[in-house]
Specification:
- There is one protein chain.
- With about 500 residues, the protein is of the alpha/beta class.
- The chain has 2 domains: about 300 residues, Alpha-Beta Barrel (7-stranded beta/alpha barrel); about 160 residues, no CATH class.
- About 45% of the residues lie in helices and about 15% in strands.
- The chain contains 18 helices and 14 strands.
- The strands form 3 sheets. Strands 1, 4, 5, 6, 12 and 13 form a 6-stranded parallel sheet that branches. It has a 6-stranded mixed sheet with strand order 7-11-10-14-8-9, with helices on both faces. A two-stranded antiparallel sheet has the order 2-3.
- Helix 2 packs across helix 3.
- The longest helix has 23 residues.
- The N and C termini lie far apart (about 65 Å).
Length: about 500
C-alpha cells in the first residue's frame, strides 16, 4: 500500500452550559446517578478515559496507556471546556497538552479544532449572531490552546453559505460536513459539475468551496458508512476490527493520495459505548504500526495535499436531520424514541418565542449600550474577553477599547450587565433544546431557564418586563405529557422566582 494513505478519526466533544444562571452551578441530575450530573458522569466515562486510555495484551494485562487526543482530530465545545477547567482540571490540562503534542506529531498542525461558541444551529441564527458565534469560538480557542485555530466545527454540521462566509471572514481554513450535505463536485478547472450521490461520494480528499464573496474554505466530507458503523454498529467492541475497517476503506484502484476519515460524537468512545476509548486506543496504535498507512489530522492533510476538487453545498442541511435543519424548528419527524407516538409541534413556538425575546431585547440593548460603548455590537463581539478573564485589568483593557466616554464604576457595571445579557441570550439557543422529544425534557428546560434569566436581567439592566409577552408565546409550545402542560408552565417550574 502506498505511503500516501492517511487515516484521520475526528471526535466532536460537546456539552451545553448546564449551569443554573441564578446559582452558577450545575443542578443535581438524579438520572446521572451515581454521579452528581451528566457532565460529571460523561467525564468519568469518556473525557477522562480518553486522556489515559489503556491498551491491553492478549492476557488482558495493561501494556500501555496513551492519550487518545494526541492522535485524533477533535473539537471540544467552549461550554464543555469551561466546565472541565473548573471541575476536572487534570482532564482539561491533558486535552490542552494533547494539542501541543499533536503539533510535533503532525508537521506543526494541532489536532484541536474550534467550535461555534455554544452550539447554535448556524443557518437558523441571524447574521449578527452568526458572526459573534464564530468570533467567540475563535477567541475561546485561542485563550485555551494558545494558537489560532485552522478549522471550526459547525454545530450538528448545520451549514449554509452565510455561515461559511462567517468562518472564512475570520480566517478559518476548513470545516467538516456529511456526504449528504454536498450537492455537486467537480475537478478544479473543469466546467462540468457532477451531481452528488451521497452513498457513493468520494470522501478520500478535501474539497474547495468557493464563496460568493470571493473567499473560499476547504471542507472534509467524512466517510458516512464508516462513521455510522462506529456510532451504531458495535465496531467498538473490538479494536482490531475497528482498525481493519479503517485500513480497508481506501480505493485500491486509485494511486493518488487518499484520506480515510470518520466523524462521530466524541462521547461515542466510552460513554455511548463502554470501553470505546480502549477500542480507539488499540486501533490508533495498530494504525501507527501499519507500514502502509499513517495517522494524520485535518490541518496536516490540508497542508500536504490541498484540494484538487471543488464542491457545492446543499443549503440548510446537517448531519443529524434528514430534513435539513427542521429538527430545530419544526415537527419534522426526527426524534429519539420513534416508538412513542409523540409529536414535536412544540419546536416552532419555542423558537418563535425565543426569537421574539431576542429581537425585543436587542432594540433596547442597542439604545442602552450606546450610552457607554462606541459600537455596542463590536463590543459584544469582544466581550468574550470578559468571560474568559474577569480580572480588573482585563476589564480596563476592554473599556479602553470600547468606551464612548469616560465611564464611572456604575456605568461600567451597567455595560457589563448588558453584555452578559447578550451572552445568556446566546446560550438559550443551544441546539440540544430542540433535539430531543419534548419541551418538558431536561434539555429544553435548560434553555427555558436561560431565557428566564434573560427576562429577569432585562428587568434590571433594560428596565423592560417581557415576561407576559414571552409567556403568551411560549404557552403555544404544548408538551406531550399532560402533567407537564406547556412551555409557560415548564418555565414557571424551572424559574420559580421569575
Amino acid at each position: 500500500m502506498s505511503a500516501s494513505r492517511y487515516i484521520c478519526i475526528h471526535g466532536h466533544f460537546y456539552q451545553p452550559a448546564r449551569e443554573n444562571p441564578w446559582t452558577g452551578s450545575v443542578p443535581l441530575a438524579t438520572d446521572a446517578y451515581p454521579f452528581h450530573d451528566w457532565n460529571a458522569r460523561i467525564t468519568a466515562e469518556c473525557y477522562g478515559p480518553n486522556a489515559w486510555s489503556q491498551i491491553r495484551d492478549g492476557q488482558g494485562r495493561v501494556s500501555e496507556i496513551i492519550n487518545n487526543y494526541e492522535r485524533i482530530n477533535f473539537n471540544f465545545g467552549p461550554t464543555l471546556l469551561g466546565w472541565l477547567e473548573r471541575n476536572a482540571r487534570e482532564v482539561y490540562d491533558a486535552i490542552l497538552a494533547a494539542d501541543k503534542s499533536s503539533q510535533s506529531r503532525f508537521s506543526g498542525h494541532g489536532s484541536a479544532m474550534a467550535q461555534c461558541y455554544n452550539h447554535m444551529i448556524m443557518p437558523l441564527a441571524n447574521e449578527r449572531d452568526k458572526e459573534t458565534q464564530v468570533i467567540w469560538g475563535i477567541a475561546d480557542f485561542r485563550h485555551r490552546f494558545g494558537r489560532d485555530p485552522e478549522g471550526m466545527w459547525l454545530p450538528e454540521t448545520a451549514v449554509d453559505t452565510a455561515s461559511l462566509e462567517a468562518l472564512a471572514r475570520q480566517g478559518i481554513a476548513y470545516t467538516v460536513l456529511a456526504p449528504r450535505q454536498i450537492a455537486a463536485t467537480r475537478q478544479i478547472g473543469s466546467s462540468d459539475w457532477v451531481k452528488n450521490d451521497h452513498e457513493s461520494m468520494d470522501t478520500h480528499h478535501p474539497y474547495l468551496l468557493k464563496l460568493p464573496s470571493g473567499k473560499s474554505i476547504s471542507v472534509f466530507v467524512y466517510n458516512g458508512a464508516l462513521s455510522r458503523a462506529v456510532a451504531f454498529e458495535q465496531i467498538l467492541t473490538n479494536g482490531e476490527q475497528f482498525a481493519a475497517r479503517l485500513i480497508g476503506g481506501f480505493d485500491s484502484r486509485d494511486d493518488s493520495a487518499q484520506l480515510v476519515h470518520i466523524a462521530t460524537d466524541g462521547e461515542t468512545y466510552g460513554h455511548h459505548h463502554t470501553f470505546g476509548d480502549m477500542a480507539l486506543a488499540y486501533a490508533l496504535r495498530a494504525i501507527e504500526r501499519h507500514s502502509g498507512v499513517r495517522l494524520t489530522n485535518y490541518g496536516e492533510l490540508l497542508h500536504l495535499h490541498p484540494p484538487t476538487h471543488e464542491a457545492q453545498i446543499l443549503e440548510n442541511t446537517s448531519w443529524s436531520c434528514a430534513h435539513g435543519v427542521e429538527r430545530w424548528r419544526s415537527d419534522c419527524g426526527c426524534r429519539i424514541n420513534v416508538s412513542r407516538p409523540w409529536n414535536q409541534e412544540w419546536r416552532a413556538p419555542l423558537r418563535e418565542a425565543m426569537d421574539w425575546l431576542r429581537d425585543s431585547i436587542n432594540i433596547e440593548f442597542e439604545t442602552h449600550a450606546a450610552k457607554y460603548l462606541t459600537d455596542p455590537w463590536a463590543a459584544r463581539d469582544d466581550s468574550i474577553a470578559l468571560t474568559l478573564d474577569p480580572s480588573e485589568s482585563a476589564s480596563k483593557h476592554f473599556f479602553a477599547r470600547h468606551q464612548a466616554k469616560r465611564l464611572t464604576p456604575a456605568n461600567r457595571a451597567h455595560a457589563v450587565a448588558l453584555l452578559d445579557l447578550q451572552r445568556h441570550m446566546m446560550l438559550m439557543y443551544s441546539s440540544c433544546g430542540w433535539f430531543f422529544d419534548d419541551i418538558s425534557g431536561v434539555e429544553a428546560a435548560m434553555l427555558l431557564r436561560q431565557s428566564g434569566w434573560v427576562i429577569a436581567q432585562a428587568r434590571v439592566a433594560l428596565k423592560v418586563d417581557l415576561l407576559d409577552g414571552y409567556l403568551e408565546r411560549i404557552s403555544q409550545a404544548k408538551s406531550n405529557d399532560p402533567e407537564a402542560g406547556d412551555g409557560a408552565q415548564v418555565l414557571r417550574r424551572t424559574c420559580p422566582d421569575l
